[in-house]
Specification:
With 453 residues, this protein is α+β, with helices and mostly antiparallel strands. The protein has helices spanning 25-32, 49-79, 82-88, 116-128, 155-167, 313-322, 338-372, 375-393, 402-419, 427-442; strands spanning 101-102, 105-113, 133-137, 145-152, 174-178, 200-206, 209-215, 222-228, 231-237, 246-249, 259-266, 272-279, 285-291, 294-300. Among the domains are: 50-92, no CATH class; 200-300, Immunoglobulin-like, CATH 2.60.40; 338-442.
Length: 453
Amino acid sequence: MLSRKSLPDAVLEPEQQYAVVLLNDEQLSQLMRKPGMRPVNRGHSVPDVHMRYLRLKRQTAAAAALLLVLGAGSFLYFMAPQPAMASMFAWKELPEAPTLDTGASFSVTIQTTDSSDGAGFAANRVRTLGFPSFTRVSPGRHQLHQAMVGPYASLDEAEKVQRRLTRSGFPSARIFVDESLRNAPRNDIANAEVGEGNPNVVLISAPDRLSVVFELPLEPRQVRSRRVENVLDLDVGPMSSKVVPQQWSAPEGVHLIERVSIEGVQASETGDFLRAHVTLPEFARANVRAEGRRVYVDLTWPMIAPDAVAPQPAAAAAAAEAGPAQPPPSRVVPVADARQGAQSSDAYAEQLRGVVERLGDVKPFLMSAAKAGSPDVLRALDDTLSTLETSLRGMRPPAAAVDQHQMFLSAIRTARKATDVSYSGDRNAQAREAFVLYDAAVNAGSLITPVAR
């Protein structure tokens, strides 16, 4: 048996010797030009009926949900009312509009007196002559009551009215100019090009009121108005040319109007008409009047005190013979006469009830005005409160109602602090205190308890 050591070493001939080269897999693949490996049968290698069922079920459910969403969206779009759509989608909201043009107004002051009854008497008298009249309280420490006519958009209109009033027995009629809106803030949106048939629309201001003025090319033969909630529609015409749709927004800080838009409406027989839409708060009062080529929409606050009741026919005839209206004389009632005292109590209760009802109308706006702090709104409220305070001071309460009367006066004084433009304290606190005093006065339990709203 041969061992390993006994084996002779193998000797290779020179032509039988080889070189050894060591390669890794990547080098071997490059050397052999072997294509790269790629996976095959990426899907299920073995058919699985249950898995295919689950996958098909998920795809069907997703498609059904998509169809349901699309169907619901289509239904809402076509069936939902426009206000609802406007609140759901931002792109359904009204587009931004340029600011209304503003200008000065011209009114005619016909009488100035210390008595609110005298101013109301004069305003009622000129109203019977066909003039748009109103009353206001002049600013300042010594407040005066004025009867006025207007407002008008041009000085020519006001001068014509002044001459007519002078011939009608008001020789002291004077022109009053209000420029509070002339420099009202405007937005940066420019007016689009419009047709020649479009009217000029301008916003003017007068004491306690605003007026939207439509200046037409020709004097209209028909002016019809209708109001539905907070939109006042006007049909004016017929127009001599086509009206191109246009819209405007109110200047910043103006609260009696929000938006104005116009469009043309074609009538079958009478021709083309101008249709104007005036959007205003629901609380605002609106009155439409035509003055030549101009159509006015007068807007007032709801708590503006109405003018005094017109006098009886006999008194009116006597006043006409006497000339310009004068304040009615004060009536003195003897306290010693029990029957006259009872009549005085009834008359006082009726007068006080009117003041308290107007105070109730002011309450919803006092707090909002105190929060907003707009000087125009504060002045309007202060003028109204001043009128009511003057009315209270002119009353003679019976002994049983003196305390309640003073409480109402305190409530008005406190409210006027909140509406004072120069007041630097807490307006909201003053307004809340006025509410407390008002409620306490209404519930004072005196013999004369007015019905408050």
